[in-house]
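Provenance and format

Records in this collection were gathered into a single text stream. Each protein contributes a sequence line and a token line. The two records reproduced below are adjacent in the stream.
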Amino acid sequence: MNIEIDAFGTLVIAVVFLFLGRYLVQKISFFKNYNIPEPVVGGLIAALCAYALYSFFGISANFNAQIQNVLMLMFFTSIGLSASFSKLKEGGKSLLLFLVCVATFVLVQNVVGMSLATMLGLDPLIGLIVGSITLTGGHGTAGAWGQILETQHGIQGAIVLGMASATFGLIIGGVIGGPVAKFLIKRHHLADQVNDEDDDQPAHQNSAAFEYPRKTRLITSNNAVSTLGMFALCIFVANGMTEFSKGQWFELPTFVWALACGVLVRNTLEHGLKVNIFDRAIDVFGNASLSLYLSMALLSLQLWLLADLAGPLVIILLLQTATLALFTIFVTFKVMGSDYDAAVLSAGHCGFGMGATPTAIANIQAVTNTYGPSHKAFLIIPLCGAFFIDIINAVVIQTIIKFF
């Protein structure tokens, strides 16, 4: 039996499991000690409940995809609207070094995936699907490239395989980031646990995007309306560009257009028209959409799809996980300075490497909630997600496909 859940029901269930996740993180020391993000905990509980209902009673639910898509677009728009060109200069050398780490791992991820696929007797392009297409790109990129690989390269089932692999990546990316950071922090004695933040205290005026998510942001109705107007404009343009670019060489997923439009709107208003952008409102809507999107994404996971992954593909995904953990510990952490900021950035890189930008930000929020702030991480991770990661991934994927 299949049950259809409308937008309001989907939102209610997502909020319930989101707060359940927060409660469990506060009460269960394992989740707190290993910095597992609250939306990931709540979403996984929801996904396991859905799996049990399907396995024992044959009951499945279709949650409203439109509201989840809107929240995803709002999150990526908030990344773009937070990406001021002046912050690029502030990121400086550290941003460049982190981008080198991320770009290098995209290549490593695809080399590992395609090499293992070849060794296991599979098409090398299948290794690309269980490489950066799904693990760095997430569900949006998996759907876009899966269709291309099916229609133009004859890889049957590429979309289903891509969605299952992206599901695996979303789960693992949100699970391993915290433990990697904890291992690095404890091994190198970089920080001690801090008390929970006081939610009633205001956020620092110069805090970066998504920094201090539990702090109070003081906004007015006028600020909220103008900010929602910017979000609506970016998403409207993104939907239009998605339709316009279909079949063209510059075809991109809608969330990439939303992010790019956010960058354009932010910097046109700020630097061209000298309009003061109210970052606190962007932070509020960005953090809210991030938490709800992750909760809904995991809520909507059909874990039984992972059963469709044959043995060789499971082996590839498990080795991809190990490769990411080792790369962030021995490369990212050392390149970024082997300090506390580097440990937080390593957790963010785990999110980029398996799960995409939302997971990266959720990971660093979970770590800093436990061990204290890292302004550098909250500056670099959103900028990397806004300006570079999807471009780097798209260039690498397109280059590789041309040779096959």
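Adjacent record:
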Amino acid sequence: MQQVIVTGVGNGIGAAVARKCVAQGATVIGCDIDGPAIERLAREFPRDSFFGEVVDVGDLGALRRFFGRCTERFDCLDGLVNNAGLYHGKSVYKYSDDEIDRIIAVNLTALIHLSKDFAAHVQQTGKRAAIVNLTSVAGEVGSSDALYGSTKAAVIGLTKSNAMNFAPYLRVNAVSPALIRETAIYHRIPQYRLEEYQRQETLKEPILPEGVADVVMFLLSDASRHLTGKIVPVDNGAYPR
């Protein structure tokens, strides 16, 4: 693991992954819509270990230009973490048409295009690489936010299908967290859903972004070299499946 792209790098899981990558000697190329968060994160790292850009992954043109700059900067890329996502925590009846289009663009369409372009680049180099997608327990058991749940279910299908399509050069796996504290999403979850998540957990140590990042790092690493097309839950034992 040498050069890793991380979307949604500014906060939460993305920032935790970036910190762990840099700590292990990797270079992170990150993007986020939150410019100040990228600037704060960049100040934590040694020079030339982190390159952050303000990019709206829901804007396909901007996303493609970002990836073009990644390949210009580095001949070989070793990992892609598709972490950027939107969650509104509201009823499907309250979504506007524009909000529906936006959440699909960020949570699914961006992953389709960035994964495809990343895979094509890796196959040209002849190297091996790994993609890790962030899905959610909501994609497995449903969500009170139907748009979020359906896009995260689609990420599960995309992970399995891309694992077939991108082999043998790339491994493609996903991490499926449940209730993660210290994230923007946590504060948007309706109270009754928070209580349901907590009731289902059999392990009681709160899940933090760093705990999810540990699993992402495993899936990026050679230690998971025999895994592809897998959905790894990080859920404190909730929703056994």
